Amino acid sequence: MSGNRTFTMIKPDAVKAGNIGNILQMMNAAGFRIVAMKYTKLSAEKAGEFYEVHKERPFYGELVDFMSSGPIVAAVLEKDNAVEDFRKLIGATNPAEAAEGTIRAKYATSIGENAVHGADSDENAAREGSFHFAGTEMF
Ligand code: CMP
Description:
This protein is of the alpha+beta class and 139 residues long. It has one domain: Alpha-Beta Plaits (2-Layer Sandwich). The chain is built from seven helices and four strands. The chain has helices spanning 12-16, 20-29, 44-50, 60-67, 82-90, 103-107, 122-132; strands at 4-10, 33-40, 72-79, 116-118. It starts with a strand and ends in a 7-residue tail after the last helix. It binds adenosine-3',5'-cyclic-monophosphate. Residues 54, 59, 62-63, 93, 111-112, 114, 117 line the site of adenosine-3',5'-cyclic-monophosphate (CMP). The site of adenosine-3',5'-cyclic-monophosphate (CMP) has 9 residues, from helix 4.
């Protein structure tokens, strides 16, 4: 039975630190199925477009620079209640506030360099998934 979908990125800090495998293992152990996945790098233009909703925020420039600073892993994941359960698995945006055992508590270093992204609604998960993947790349 197929469940709901969410969208994630393993961010440049976690890739650089060698944590792709550890983070994928945590997603797998929590019951998420990989629907689509790619190792890629965002241009500053693409990162700006992806995070357009934050354009007016003071950290937007820093966010775009960081997200285009190195390779990332982008993925669509599937599980019942995917968006909410995935946000629980990754923990709070600020790693200082992330619950023990969450991905950000383990691997994030700051609110900006916080290891992973997780979509915050079903609607954004669908939008973000199709930003990175064609329908023919989702299985
Ligand atoms: P993410 O879940 O990818 O969604 C938006 C990102 O903006 C967020 O994770 C953080 O990495 C980043 N962000 C949010 N607040 C701040 C902040 N105060 N300073 C720097 N980056 C931030």
